[in-house]
Amino acid sequence: MKNKPVITDIQGSFTLHNGVQMPYLGLGTYQSDNDQEVVDAIKGAIDIGYRHIDTAAAYKNEQGVGKGIKESGIDRKEIFVVSKVWNDNQGYESTLKAFDESLNRLGLEYLDLYLIHWPVSGKYKETWKALEYLYAQKKIRAIGVSNFLKHHLEDLMKDCTIVPMVNQMEFHPLLVQQNLVDFCNENSIQYESWSPFMQGKVFALHICNDLAKKHRKSVAQIILRWNLQKGVIAIPKSVHIDRITSNADIFDFELSEEDINFLDSLENGQRSGPDPDNFNF
After folding, report:
1. Of the residues 24, 59, 124, 191, which is catalytic?
2. Pfam families annotated for this entry (predicted)?
């Protein structure tokens, strides 16, 4: 593990390799409807103290996300907003156009982080050049990738001017991929998890029940705390204010090294989402 991360409170952050502070706990919006549901979820999360909101063009809810941010009444500069370019829009010119369309839907003048959603073969290098251009134009504060395995990153880094600042991956106790985490740490690429609860499947496994009892916390809280203590940014998705609140109640306890090693040991390569080496969309 890299230097032990400093974890303070809901608005704490990890520092990206360009110096930008990225809040280490965010609200995911995958499968949140583009209506009052996502607006209320974001306003509620921001009211609780969340300052990191993750969306994507493919989620088709950027308008609702932007509305929720605006209606929260919090200064835009205090919110870390992330979106992603979808596979159909990859390529240089098409990525520039897709970025502008995402900004328009969000009603924002810039993004804090923009990611390549999936490593589309033959396209992601041109897409990355577009992200580097947008970063140079100060339209994005940080740029990164999602679902890139080590060989994708190595291939991209052979030709890129800027090393990705973030790699957002499926990450949970059954899919740790420690070698990839280590590679990202060695190259100052911030690791971030999507689907930290395996889209809810992790709760049926009962694998973390003993840890939950030990710390008097929920399984969800244990897993999120594990993310942060491993230096991994987490963006659990929910539209229910009680769960959004509960997911943020992870700053009054600490997992031991033994606890972390136990969770790491559950790795069996099981995915709840697509394989970055074998997706067809």
Report:
1. 59
2. Aldo_ket_red (PF00248)
Name the pTM for this structure.
Answer: 0.97
Q: Which CATH superfamily is 27-162 part of?
A: NADP-dependent oxidoreductase domain (3.20.20.100)
Average pLDDT over residues 113-121: 98
- Residue 262 CB partners (closer than 8 Å, separation 6+): 211
Asked whether 170 and 162 are in contact (CB, 8 A), the reply is: no
* Identity of the residue numbered 2: K
Mean pLDDT, range 38-57, rounded to an integer: 98
Question: What's the confidence (pLDDT) of residue 168?
Answer: 98
Binding annotation for substrate: 117
Residue 221 has pLDDT above 90, yes or no: yes
Q: Where are the domains of the chain?
A: 27-162, 165-270
Class of domain 165-270: alpha beta
Identify whether 59 is a catalytic site residue: yes
| 3-class DSSP assignment, residue 97 | helix
Binding site: residue ranges? Answer: 117
